[in-house]
Write a structure and sequence with these properties.
It contains 5 helices and 2 strands; from the N terminus they run H-E-H-H-H-E-H. The chain has helices at about 1-15, 30-60, 60-65, 70-90, 100-125; strands at about 25, 95. Helix 1 (about 1-15) packs across helix 2 (about 30-60) and helix 2 (about 30-60) crosses helix 4.
Length: about 130
């Protein structure tokens, strides 16, 4: 159940990122858009689970030298990769360039963080 909730929260965060010019959720019905967002959320989660640790391992020197700021660039590139993979699967989601990906990745991270905080507060049974 936790993975499903995480995918739903990520889908909402990706939807918020479409407010950035250059990140587009293309044509389609409401149902198509929701399914696209869910698909992109799954892809984004897989990219972050598989590719990000490898990049961090091989680029750990850059993380140290830049005091972690390279992480912003890595997140933008991973968001661009997510857009490319979504396009390969025929999902109508597009990320047009580095800067939209940069700001979109920040929006997804912040929105996801806030949504997870709210979800944790709502489900806390203490």
């Amino acid at each position: 159940m936790g993975i499903l909730v995480h995918v739903l929260l990520t889908a909402v965060a990706v939807w918020v990122s479409t407010l950035i010019p250059g990140i587009d959720l293309l044509e389609g019905t409401t149902t198509t858009r929701i399914l696209t967002l869910l698909g992109v959320a799954v892809i984004f989660g897989l990219v972050n689970a598989v590719v990000k640790p490898v990049v961090k391992f091989f680029g750990c020197v850059f993380y140290i030298v830049t005091l972690g700021l390279i992480g912003l660039v890595v997140n933008a590139l991973l968001f661009m990769l997510t857009g490319w993979i979504a396009d390969q699967f025929g999902l109508p989601f597009r990320v047009d360039g580095f800067w939209p990906a940069f700001w979109g990745a920040i929006i997804v991270a912040l929105t996801g963080w806030v949504l997870n905080l709210v979800y944790d507060k709502v489900t806390d049974n203490d």
